[in-house]
Amino acid sequence: MALRFLPNFTASRSIFSTFLSRIASCEFAHKNQQSSFHTSAVNNKVEGWYDQNEWVYPPQKPGEPRRPAWVNHCRENIKYSPKTMWYIACLVRGMSVDEAIKQLSFIPKKGAVIAKEVIEEAQELAVKEHNVEYKSNLWVAQSFVGKSIIVKGLRKHARMRFGVVHYRYCHYFVRLVEGPPPKHYYKPELTGNEKLEEYFAELRSRRIHRTL
């Protein structure tokens, strides 16, 4: 439709060529939109995450400690920025399920509501399909974000200029493991005495090249 009015356009040649190139890119952008999504790699990542729920382990030996149950869950194609969702995903790592749900309930962000719903779904899935006796006896072992499709749009500017807008989508992955959460999910920082002992051990382990 926009190309019909171009012959009546009486602006300068440089502006005309710029306008024509931008309109042509808009006319044909939707034809190549599906090819720029790259959905194959994204779908393989999500399917591989769900496939881990079907893993079967060999029987345990007598006296071997019981293997804790765990469950993987995911929500695909969330209309939310992956970078913003990353902060929320990092918050609940290493927490118990009840504590993670409690913390997410007080965060006024869209991503917090989504993460809370995904964790609650995984909690119910663990009880129904993975032989977890108490739904409160779980902790968040993994919580991370994956990049999904990016839809490109146009935004009009002054003097017949256009800007590209990226509508970003993401996947949210979570893994719940049966049992109490660990005391330290991340390795704690060494104290002053521990750093000193580590430095002395490094000095004592030095070796002069080409000597005994």
UniProtKB/TrEMBL annotation:
InterPro entries assigned to the protein according to its UniProt record, in alphabetical order: Ribosomal_uL22, Ribosomal_uL22_bac/org-type, Ribosomal_uL22_sf
Keywords assigned by UniProt, alphabetized: Mitochondrion, Ribonucleoprotein, Ribosomal protein, Transit peptide
UniProt GO MF annotations: structural constituent of ribosome
CDD domains registered for this protein in UniProt: Ribosomal_L22
GO BP annotation list: translation
Subcellular location: Mitochondrion
Gene3D superfamilies: Ribosomal protein L22/L17
GO CC aspect terms: mitochondrial large ribosomal subunit
SUPFAM superfamilies reported for this sequence: Ribosomal protein L22
Pfam family for this entry, one: Ribosomal_L22
Similarity field: Belongs to the universal ribosomal protein uL22 family.
PANTHER family with a match to the protein in the record: CHLOROPLAST 50S RIBOSOMAL PROTEIN L22-RELATED, LARGE RIBOSOMAL SUBUNIT PROTEIN UL22M
Record-given protein name: Large ribosomal subunit protein uL22m
Source organism per UniProt: Caerostris darwini
Gene name in the database record: mRpL22
